[in-house]
């Protein structure tokens, strides 16, 4: 019949059919996805930058004021420089590490509590890409806090932040930020409430930071306590970062000891990253 419906012919304009189930659409690295996650995490802490960037800078500056007044009187010299100049680099990198931890430890935990964790797990991102986006944002916050603290300390009388070894400042600063970002991500996976994350901050991160030679050189300690300090990875971050500014360090008597410390921190972070990736891939406390 003339009015009978005719079959629709397939043309070039017809949309292509979906790929078979299980066949990947995105090959290689999902750069757009990683960048989107990174921007999301950065915007999250920038929305409250008074709390996440400026407040840590003020708190760190107060540490400098208090300890300089208490311990830096009578022209006290440490490692050949005034006490304020000695303690400033340690305070900068300590603030960087603590804020890297604070940022990454909030990512999964907030999703668990608010019921929005599916927004992180559902997008087409591999476990490595997910980890990269979160850690990258934490390092960004760390660098912003460190820069803000350094600029504030430049205004404090008696502090010199002349850089002797730029590579050490960059390397140890980044290694410290990455180490705490990974530790924060592990905490975020494990924690089920904010009290858990706060416990790690108060009983692990804060003690390791304060007892890592930030305000003293370990040569003044008893041999047993020196050994304990050398088992603390925070010590190598702070002493190596300080070496970048002062050209002197209590890691060892030679610059080669600092280089070996830099290599050791890189290997430590690689191992910590592998552990974090394995736990993230297993879905432990995320998909169960």
Automatic annotation (TrEMBL):
It is found in: Cell inner membrane; Membrane. The keyword Cytoplasm does not apply. InterPro entries: ABC-2_transport_permease (IPR052522), ABC2_TM (IPR013525), ABC2_TM_bact-type (IPR047817), ABC_2_transport (IPR000412). Coiled coil: none annotated. GO terms for molecular function: ABC-type transporter activity. The chain crosses the membrane at residues 53-71, 78-97, 130-156, 168-191, 197-218, 227-245, 257-280. It holds the Pfam family ABC2_membrane. Keywords: Cell membrane, Membrane, Transmembrane, Transmembrane helix, Transport. PROSITE patterns: ABC_TM2. The keyword Ribonucleoprotein does not apply. One of its GO terms (cellular component) is ATP-binding cassette (ABC) transporter complex. Residues 47-283 form the ABC transmembrane type-2 domain. It comes from the Bacteria. Belongs to the ABC-2 integral membrane protein family. This is Transport permease protein. The lineage of its organism: Bacteria, Pseudomonadati, Pseudomonadota, Alphaproteobacteria, Sphingomonadales.
């Amino acid at each position: 019949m003339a009015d009978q419906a005719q079959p629709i012919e397939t043309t070039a304009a017809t949309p292509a059919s979906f790929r078979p189930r299980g066949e990947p659409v995105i090959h290689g690295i999902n750069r757009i996805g990683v960048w989107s996650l990174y921007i999301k995490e950065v915007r999250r802490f920038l929305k409250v930058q008074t709390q996440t960037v400026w407040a840590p800078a003020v708190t760190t500056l107060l540490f400098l004021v208090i300890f300089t007044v208490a311990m830096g009187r009578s022209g006290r010299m440490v490692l050949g420089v005034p006490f304020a100049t000695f303690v400033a680099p340690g305070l900068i990198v300590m603030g960087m590490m603590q804020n890297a931890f604070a940022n990454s430890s909030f990512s999964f935990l907030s999703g668990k509590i608010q019921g929005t964790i599916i927004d992180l797990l559902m997008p087409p991102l591999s476990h490595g890409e997910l980890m990269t986006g979160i850690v990258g944002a934490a390092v960004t916050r760390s660098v912003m806090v460190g820069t803000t603290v350094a600029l504030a300390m430049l205004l404090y009388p008696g502090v010199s932040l002349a850089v002797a070894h730029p590579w050490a400042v960059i390397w140890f600063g980044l290694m410290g930020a990455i180490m705490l970002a990974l530790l924060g991500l592990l905490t975020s996976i494990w924690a089920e409430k904010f009290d858990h994350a706060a416990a790690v901050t108060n009983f692990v991160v804060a003690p390791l930071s304060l007892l890592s030679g930030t305000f003293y050189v370990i040569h003044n300690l008893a041999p047993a306590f020196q050994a304990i300090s050398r088992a603390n990875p925070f010590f190598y971050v702070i002493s190596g970062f300080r070496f970048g500014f002062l050209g002197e360090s209590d890691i060892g008597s030679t610059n080669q000891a600092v280089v070996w410390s830099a290599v050791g921190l890189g290997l430590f972070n690689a191992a910590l990253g592998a552990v974090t990736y394995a736990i993230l891939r297993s879905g432990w406390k995320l998909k169960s």
